[in-house]
Amino acid sequence: xxxxxxxxxxxxxxxxxxxxxxxxxxxxxxxxxxxxxxxxxxxxxxxxxxxxxxxxxxxxxxxxxxxxxxxxxxxxxxxxxxxxxxxxxxxxxxxxxxxxxxxxxxxxxxxxxxxxxxxxxxxxxxxxxxxxxxxxxxxxxxxxxxxxxxxxxxxxxxxxxxxxxxxxxxxxxxxxxxxxxxxxxxxxxxxxxxxxxxxxxxxxxxxxxxxxxxxxxxxxxxxxxxxxxxxxxxxxxxxxxxxxxxxxxxxxxxxxxxxxxxxxxxxxxxxxxxxxxxxxxxxxxxxxxxxxxxxxxxxxxxxxxxxxxxxxxxxxxxxxxxxxxxxxxxxxxxxxxxxxxxxxxxxxxxxxxxxxxxx
Length: 359
Prior knowledge:
The chain has 359 residues and is α+β, with helices and mostly antiparallel strands. 29% of the residues lie in helices and 20% in strands.
């Protein structure tokens, strides 16, 4: 008989949450092993956060070369070889996988709060650029949510400078945030957060999942996956937009990624892009398949064009999105949302030394 050596089952993981706190998951405490399915790990995180609208969220991890992946609910932890090769210990990052087109319409306040934390992080880290007047409005809603109504006795000169809102923050922005904050009297944290999301959702890069690729002559492009389709950027400018119902196939082979689009003349056109390597190309393909599935209209409500191409992205590959779609979540009669008497514990943002006031 052959000798089979057992793979050590011990698992120790830290999940970094959107409020920058950490949730530790271990074999000893939760019984999580390398043979545990990703869905079980996700379940622990969702219960810890008391989330019901769970399908918008996921857990990311990075391999040793900093390539990002999403934890697959259907696979065991051991099958995520890129993750296993990084530890122990292991690190997972909780975040939004699918951005709701209108986050203000999410059913529960706790879900909107997690969206608020994610989008706030997107702005701070430069993934969601915004002009200064918009940044000032967003910053004021953050301060209102954190500190409540402006109080001249508590909120002394420079109080806004203790918080971070955008990369390379200037005093001019902080002064503008303070002026707007004074006008938001009476807004509760939940109201301020909904108003924040209402402004943020109108920004061009809101909810855009960017993937770097190359076009003709090795020119650099980004493919942005969004709730409505795929957007193509070159030199930070939008040069193409293809809506999900018009995208008939996505395919990859080695490092080549194909996007097949049906034109208004009913003729198909294929657009080819080159990824950095096969791993990033496959990751782009998987994300594209999942975005299409999550945001698509069900067949019985779509037109004949969508029904005709219902096998989107299936050539030669087995990957499928297994969760609920966006529409299914809004219409699921088995879950009554919002749940009554939900209490939310909000976390305070990290603060910094107050900016020295210049005389």
